[in-house]
Design goal:
Elements: E1 6-10, H1 17-26, E2 30-35, H2 43-46, E3 51-55, H3 63-70, E4 75-78, H4 86-90, H5 96-111, E5 117-122, H6 138-150, H7 152-168, E6 175-182, E7 184-186, E8 194-197, E9 210-212, H8 213-225, H9 227-233, E10 239-242
Helix pairs in contact: 1-8, 3-5, 5-7, 6-7, 8-9
């Protein structure tokens, strides 16, 4: 196994974030989880010796506090998302994922680390990687256009990934990044076979696939802890699907 790493996870008490935290702890790494609701963690995880809980919203921490938490970490993972309720979709903060991504990147740069810090963002197949000019049908473009107008969380996810693509880019000396794009998320109890692609192989709107949250957590943990996996996908937006069983 890789050497023990220091990892910060935001959105750690969510459905996918908690699975990522459990996977990282099972691999023997140290995790700082920035969470608003620590009680949502199962007790076995909450009391794990390698887990430190920071009871706060990442958007409410001061720049100084955030830089202090980020200092000496090897990687940051963001599993932040909007609750699928009326308030979660249409209420503030509209730029939760984008602002958290930006603030965490600023905190990384403030510490002037000698080696690049990994940033792993959970995103969505509904967001295209415009570095690759991915083909999108006219019908899907129309639906995505409506989503941009009607659903603030979609724009937030797009802007967060675009911040990494355009503001951090491929040659930043302080930060290396990957944005993971699952398709339709499902709940499963165990990790199963999954496949990875640089771009979607099916329409996220009209022919969506399935990706279990536990597989997303497993892949994000691989990105953080396995150098070969990281070197294969850094600076990209890999799409993850559950592998079909024939």
């Amino acid at each position: 196994m890789s050497n023990k790493k220091e990892i910060i996870v935001v959105g750690a008490s969510g459905a996918t974030g908690s699975l990522l935290v459990a996977e990282l702890l099972n691999r023997g790494h140290r995790v700082q989880a920035i969470v608003r609701s620590p009680e949502r963690f199962p007790e076995a995880i909450r009391k794990h010796e390698n887990l430190s809980l920071i009871h706060a919203s990442v958007l409410n921490l001061s720049d100084t506090e955030l830089a202090k938490h980020v200092k000496n970490c090897d990687a940051i993972a963001s599993c932040l998302g909007h609750n699928m309720s009326f308030k979660g979709i249409f209420g503030a903060p509209h730029r939760l994922v984008t602002d958290a991504t930006r603030r965490l990147c600023v905190a990384i740069k403030a510490n002037e680390s000698d080696t690049p810090i990994k940033f792993v963002l959970m995103n969505t197949t509904g967001n295209s990687n415009r570095d690759l000019n991915e083909p999108v049908s006219f019908a899907q473009r129309c639906v995505i256009g409506l989503l941009r107008l009607l659903l603030p969380p979609h724009v937030d996810n797009e802007n967060a990934a675009d911040y990494l693509r355009t503001e951090i880019g491929q040659k930043d000396g302080a930060i290396e990044w990957t944005a993971v794009r699952p398709d339709g998320l499902t709940n499963e109890d165990t990790v199963t076979a999954y496949e990875l692609h640089p771009s979607p192989i099916r329409s996220a709107i009209f022919d969506a696939g399935k990706t279990s949250r536990i597989n997303v957590g497993h892949f994000m943990a691989d990105l953080i802890t396995e150098d070969e996996v990281w070197n294969n996908w850094k600076g990209q937006m890999p799409v993850i699907y559950n592998k079909s069983i024939v």
